Amino acid sequence: MNPEFWHERWQRNEIGFHQQEINLHLQGYWREVGVDAGACVLVPLCGKSRDMLWLAGAGHRVLGVEISPLAVQAFFDENGLVPEVSAAGPFESRRCGEIEILCGDFFALARERLRDVGAVYDRASLVALPPEMRRDYAAHLTQLLAPGTPVLLVTMDYPQEQMNGPPFSVTADEVHALYDAAFDVRVLAEVDILGENPRFRERGLTRLLEQVFLLQRR
């Protein structure tokens, strides 16, 4: 799965992973993250997620990272925002108010750029990637974050053989395998969401769980 895959998905508007509503787990469990208002929140592989608006409304500065320029432009256009555009190393930065999105490859992100990041929100990053890229993603995120940095992680767990990703199935065991070496991992919630997602039942799923984790960088 290379960058062209995501460029083509956005060009064809094949973005079923995008949520129009603010994520309920973000609203319900963000207080568990325990980060101060005003802290910067990293949102990797952010797409045009409206969750960034919620985080900004909660008093945070938001730093999104997204490889598709179409997604970045759509975020600002659809929310009536006019960003300032500038170069930022290997990225193009678009900033409006408390929200900045870096357009480019997440794997090009350097730790120096994240000195003031106080927390991470990952709803659609880990589940967007196939297994071999999930290992690389988790390793890169781990080396980017300073000790003590919390991560609110939302995953989906379903029989992978019943549906092609993305979004991919990521089990709790895999989350522990990816992160236990460097993070304290706590399960906050596990919710059966198959009944409220008929599009997934139509694709053949017989089970669909959404899981919420709080990771704390050691």
Major β-sheet profile: 9 strands, mixed
Corresponding CATH superfamily = Vaccinia Virus protein VP39
Give the oligomeric state of the chains in this entry, treating copies of one chain as homo and distinct chains as hetero.
Answer: single chain
Cα gyration radius (Å): 16 Å
Count of individual helical segments = 7
C-alpha geometry: globular
The fold-level CATH name is Rossmann fold
**Integer tally of domains:** 1
Sheet with most strands: strand arrangement: 3-4-5-2-1-6-7-9-8
- Our estimate of the beta-strand percent is 25-35%
Please provide the count of β strands.
9
- What is the CATH-assigned architecture? 3-Layer(aba) Sandwich
Mean pLDDT: 92
Category by helix and strand content = alpha/beta
Descriptive report:
This protein has a 9-stranded mixed sheet, with helices on both faces. 29% of the residues lie in helices and 27% in strands. The longest helix is centred in the middle third of the chain and has 14 residues. It is α/β, with parallel strands linked by helices and 218 residues long. It has a single domain, classed as Vaccinia Virus protein VP39 (Rossmann fold, 3-Layer(aba) Sandwich). The relative contact order is 0.15.
